[in-house]
């Protein structure tokens, strides 16, 4: 397997993971109680730790790939409608 | 460590990188694009050119694997000092996806990696499909010709003469002269019987 195929596999895994996390975040269960974590929204989003940097880069690539796929679908649908 | 089976003559000679002043080569300097977004925008802009797309699709249609094409494109980018090796590797899946989408839209068959066969039906599947189509066509033709055959058979039965009247053919058949003799004898016997 060439290095680009390996990279593609990793990106696909990341896209799947992102989809799953998005699905689970659609139905959030608000945590209540004395021990629930507070002030999560105040967390610094620009925290550039190596892990978050890696996540951000992979997110950018995944966004581009999903955008290309979406555009392709739209164009193919338009083509079939014309035919 | 795997044993090297062949000598690579196209590999750099040891110490080759020291033959010029450090920093003279484009890849020894800071890259032109530091961010991954910049690298991706650069490649997508280049690939969006229609003339380039036609050339690209012609190469892909010939059966050249897309990933090999992307690899050489990215390596050229590194050699000309546009981006780092890592940025190129990160951008490669997006470029590959872009070319695949382009081929899909234009209806061009392609190979993603060298080990993969052209997208679409494999030769074995193609043969199987052809056989299935042939069988179906034959069955359809037979079904269509069945009523016509029946009609022809009915007509044949109507026009058929009695079997006895037909001249017998073949090695074991009686000769015609013998048949005539037998008929004459039978007629004369009948006539004698009537006279009596």
Textual characterization of the structure:
The complex is a heterodimer of chains A (83) and B (196). Chain A is 69% helix and 0% strand. Chain A contains two helices and no strands. In chain A, helix 1 (3-26) packs across helix 2. By secondary structure, chain B is an all-alpha fold. Among the domains of chain B are: 20-106, no CATH class; 121-158. Helix content of chain B is 60%, strand content 0%. Chain B is built from six helices and no strands. In chain B, helix 1 runs parallel beside helix 4 and helix 3 (66-79) packs antiparallel against helix 4. In chain B, 16% of the residues are buried. Classes of the chains: A mainly alpha (83), B mainly alpha (196). Chain A binds chain B through residues 1-5, 7-8, 11, 57, 60-61, 64-65, 68-69, 71-72, 75-76, 79, and chain B through 36-37, 40, 67-68, 70-71, 89-94, 96-98, 101, 104-105, 112-115.
Please compute the radius of gyration of chain B using only Cα atoms: 42 Å
Measured distance between first and last alpha carbons of chain B: 121 Å
Structural class of chain A: mainly alpha
Cα-atom radius of gyration of chain A = 18 Å
Largest sheet of chain B: none
Q: Say what oligomer this is.
A: heterodimer
DSSP summary, beta strand count of chain A: 0
Unreliable segments of 5+ consecutive residues of chain A: none
Name the biggest interface.
Answer: A-B, 20 and 23 residues
Strand content of chain A: under 5%
Uncertain stretches of 5 or more adjacent residues of chain B: none
Mean pLDDT of chain A: 78
Provide the structure class of chain B: mainly alpha
Kindly state the number of beta strands of chain B.
0
- Give the number of helices of chain A: 2
Order of helices and strands of chain A: HH
Spell the H/E element sequence of chain B: HHHHHH
Distance separating the two termini of chain A: 39 Å
């Amino acid at each position: 397997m060439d290095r680009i195929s390996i990279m593609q596999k990793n990106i696909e895994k990341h896209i799947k993971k992102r989809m799953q996390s998005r699905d689970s975040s659609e139905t959030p269960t608000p945590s209540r109680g004395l021990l629930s974590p507070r002030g999560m929204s105040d967390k610094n989003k620009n925290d550039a730790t190596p892990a978050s940097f890696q996540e951000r880069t992979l997110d950018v690539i995944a966004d581009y790939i999903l955008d290309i796929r979406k555009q392709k679908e739209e164009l193919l649908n338009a083509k079939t409608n014309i035919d | 460590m795997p044993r090297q089976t062949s000598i690579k003559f196209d590999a750099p000679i040891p110490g080759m990188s020291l033959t010029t002043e450090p920093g003279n080569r484009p890849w020894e300097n800071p890259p032109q694009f530091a961010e991954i977004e910049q690298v991706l925008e650069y490649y997508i802009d280049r690939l969006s050119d229609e003339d380039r797309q036609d050339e690209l699709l012609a190469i892909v249609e010939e059966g050249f694997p897309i990933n090999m094409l992307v690899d050489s494109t990215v390596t050229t980018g590194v050699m000309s000092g546009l981006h780092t090796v890592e940025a190129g590797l990160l951008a490669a899946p997006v470029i590959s996806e872009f070319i695949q989408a382009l081929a899909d839209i234009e209806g061009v068959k392609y190979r993603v990696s060298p080990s993969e066969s052209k997208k679409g039906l494999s030769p074995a599947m193609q043969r199987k499909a052809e056989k299935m189509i042939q069988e179906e066509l034959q069955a359809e033709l037979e079904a269509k010709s069945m009523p016509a055959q029946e009609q022809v058979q009915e007509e044949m039965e109507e026009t058929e003469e009695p079997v006895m009247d037909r001249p017998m053919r073949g090695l074991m058949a009686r000769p015609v002269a013998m048949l005539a003799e037998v008929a004459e004898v039978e007629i004369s016997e009948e006539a004698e019987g009537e006279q009596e």
